[in-house]
Amino acid sequence: MLEFENTSALDIALAEQTTAMLAADINASGSASLVVSGGRTPMGFFHLLSQQDLDWSAVTITLADERWVDNQHQDSNEKLVRENLLINNAVQANFVAAKNAATDAIDGEADLEQSLATIGRFTVVILGMGDDGHTASLFPDAETLSLGLDLHSGRTAIAVTPPAAPHQRISMTLPRLLDAQQVVIHISGAGKQAVLQTAQEGDDIAELPIRAILNQQIAPLKIYWAR
Fold it and tell me: C-alpha distances in angstroms, 129 versus 56, 59, 110, 132, 185?
């Protein structure tokens, strides 16, 4: 775990590391991709990353998960990303929305899976974690959790109705999130550290789905935590 005295120090380090990985992938293959998550935690990181000197036109950005709401809704992750990351230099990046025109997330699964197939292996995936141990929209007790965590399902996106959170959602599955050169868990605060420590001490991924990220051997993992 990489520990930082405050969120500002973390944001600087994570922006620099992410930029370096995106630039290296662009140099090696001509393009790069970044998966981000919503919430308050990544806001400062988004602002710093958007100012980085990078060939943003070669970068595709998408979301680990999304609430099935209009992209102007206050709870939309797309709205958050458009207003805080797809600005400054990063306005030139390509964005793949998770929410599409389907009436609900179940009907939207196939279209998102097709969109994700065009991206290929991700360069960097940056995940948050809830106090209940969920990551992306892989929530404990959600009916589709086992499908989302199944490494052999062949699925890359699933609809999720969280038992205790508002809005139907769509989420990348565990195998799609792990199809990456680098996975990062980005958290802050003593409360999140306590949840993470509990997760590290057990192996029941249905109880704390973040364990599926912590316990896998598929993708390199870094944890960035600010006090």
Answer: 27, 25, 26, 8, 7
pLDDT digit string (tens) for 37-63? 999 999 999 999 999 999 999 999 999
CA distance 46 to 153: 32
Domain count, the chain: 1
Per-residue exposure over 159-193, b if at least 16 CB sit within 10 Å of its own CB, e if not: bbbbeeeebbbbbbbbbbbbbbbbbbbbbbeeebb
Contacts 24+ apart (CB under 8 A), 205-210: 205/149, 206/140, 206/145, 206/146, 206/149, 207/133, 207/140, 208/132, 208/133, 208/140, 209/133, 209/134, 209/135, 209/138, 209/139, 209/140, 209/145, 209/148, 209/149, 210/129, 210/133, 210/134, 210/135, 210/185
Question: Domain of 211: which CATH number?
Answer: 3.40.50.1360
- Chain length of the chain: 227
What CA–CA distances, in Å, run from 56 to 77, 92, 189? 20, 5, 31
DSSP state of 177: H
pLDDT in tens, 191-210: 999 999 999 999 999 999 99
Q: How far apart are CA 175 and CA 121, in angstroms?
A: 11
What pTM did the predictor assign? 0.97
Q: Is the pLDDT of residue 165 over 90?
A: no
Domain that holds residue 104: 2-226
